[in-house]
Amino acid sequence: LLQSSSEAAKLDSNYVYHFCVRESDTSSGGLFMFNVGTLFSAKLYNEAGRYLYSNATEGDYPDKVYGLYNCRFDVSNDVCQDCIKVAIHTIVTNCTGAKEAIVWYDQCMVRFCNSSFPSWLETEPSVALLITINVTDPYKFSNILAQSFSDLIQNVTSRDFEYPAAAQMVNASSIDKLRTLVQCIPYLSKSDSNICLRGAVAQIPNCCYGKR
């Protein structure tokens, strides 16, 4: 994929984190990484112009690559595709030789692995992004935040959605608005989605109490 500097700059501020898993046996790393590039540039990138989530494979064992992307449900297909392009560049550049990797941006995530993705819940790797802006009433804010997330999780895990996600805007104070959003990978069951989302929300007081 060709990437302009303006495209990279546009999404650079939305970068969150990337995580790579490297193994001691890298004898087939060259072909494996070639398959990673082919998978994302020839298959998943094109899918991002039409769908907000997709997965695919490329190559044969032992160099077979399993890959997926998941865009935020409230972005357009064009924004999704732009995010995937930048994420692919990041993951290929920073995770050369890795057998498994994931990169998060605010609008999308991209992941590849040398084995099929499990259909059950995975809670690692994970990352919390803290924005260090204090709220005036942490206790009240935390209660409003917890209730908002509880409502969204109930909504997402009690009905069938093409993309299991929801967002809402609530009043955090007389002048402040609070926007909350939850989203899961589409292949997760409702039960696993519920466990995952509630587990993530439970971590918020540990990392981000009194912040917004």
UniProtKB/TrEMBL annotation:
<keyword id="KW-0677">Repeat</keyword>
<dbReference type="InterPro" id="IPR002902">
    <property type="entry name" value="GNK2"/>
</dbReference>
<dbReference type="InterPro" id="IPR038408">
    <property type="entry name" value="GNK2_sf"/>
</dbReference>
<feature type="domain" description="Gnk2-homologous">
    <location>
        <begin position="14"/>
        <end position="117"/>
    </location>
</feature>
<dbReference type="Pfam" id="PF01657">
    <property type="entry name" value="Stress-antifung"/>
</dbReference>
<keyword id="KW-0732">Signal</keyword>
<feature type="domain" description="Gnk2-homologous">
    <location>
        <begin position="123"/>
        <end position="212"/>
    </location>
</feature>
<protein>
    <recommendedName>
        <fullName>Gnk2-homologous domain-containing protein</fullName>
    </recommendedName>
</protein>
